[in-house]
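Async update (no meeting this week)

Hi team, since we skipped the sync, here's where things stand on the single-chain job. The sequence we agreed to prioritize is pasted below, unchanged from the tracker. I ran it this morning and attached the output directly underneath so nobody has to dig for it. Comments welcome in thread, and please keep replies under the output.
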Amino acid sequence: MILLALACGTEPPPALPPTIRERFGEYAFLTPIDTPSTVPLVAGGEIDTRAATCATCHAENHAEWAASTHASAMRDVQFFAEMQKPDQPRWLCLNCHAPTSPQRAELITLNTRLASTTSIAALTTGPNPNFDAARVAEGVTCATCHVRRDADGQGIILGPHGAATAPHRVRKDPAALAGICQTCHSPGGNIVITPTFPCWFETAEEVAAGPDAGKPCTTCHMPQVERPAATDAAPHTVRRHAWTGSGIPKTTGGFSTLLGRGWESGLNVDFQLDPLRVTLTNARAGHALPTGDPERFLRVEASVDSKDGAALATDVLRLGQTWDWGDVATARPAKRVADTRLLPGEARDWTPQISAEGADTLRIEVLSVRLTAANAEGMAGTRLDAQLLSLWPAGQGAIDGFAAGYPLATYVYRLQLNLADGGLRIADAPTLLADSIALAALDPKLRAERLKIPHP
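Output:
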């Protein structure tokens, strides 16, 4: 029969595309988290695992989460503008921004065959019977960390204490809770998904190489507090759910909650005169400053002014990664070409190339920058396709207003020294955040001028 088929010109069936496992291996970030939609109640029946349902008993945790970047992961104009780029692996991006299986209309497992790496529907192994459209907007939600399947296949809540009086099933599993962060924030593998998409997050590796090696992310990013874990429960030691991170919120309104949520910059700044030298120290971050998204950087500016406030001289230092982002047309892969970030505990001296001769005032200020103004301007013209609008129907309207009011940076330090009398003023945190709000509200051209780096 084989000879007959060949003689008749019958072609063999085309080879099947590879599965996710065959192409990339078995990393946790390659698929959504298998999370059940409900958890059985101890007294019978069940309860759903939506964030609003969790808030019924865990109101303080929910309120902190609702003000966090996690909660806005699927209402983020930068994220959706990035997904619209032609080489972005949308299926992978969603695994961290909408990480639980009920948030996905299509089933995706390690056995899903990769007909395409840059779509959602092209990867599907079939419709998801447990899809819950209401959960998509929750982004990185309660269930991401706290809901799993037990040995019997039913849902169970993972908790740090395993309260025996909880109305739903609970399993004490602090190790699982402490380790979930790096699934997205430091996924490992350094695999190439598409040529121009480096999912380059090395925070866990940075911590492991520094003085905080062995400490979980929760040590700093979920500080302990004494309060009830749930309604009518006795106070005990629990962790906050605020995750302030770099202190650059997704809306200007987010600046108002940062201090109440415990935000503090990890940077220390010192200086000396004659000659001028600025010392920048990563004093409180157990990872590099900045970490995470490779576009982030610290913009350090030193300037001297005349008595009437005119700028006489300015120098700017950029601390961050530098990338060649590759090229879609030629498939040239992205690669990192430089890295000037501050490692944990590192102190670095900078000698600004300015002269204080004839000057009245010295200023030193530091901005933590999420995204350059030039990249923000490019994103503002993005037109979302139907697939992305199905995930965030209001997304196009949000992107159309992207240039106005979207925070690109946060002031983390400012010093003003009167060179004549030695009078020194260092801005406090409320002042810095108020100035950050004003910066976000600037005309885009003025903001671009304020954030630019004059030279490499």
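Quick observations from my side:
The longest strand covers residues 311-324.
DSSP finds 17 helices and 16 strands in the chain.
Reply here if anything looks off.
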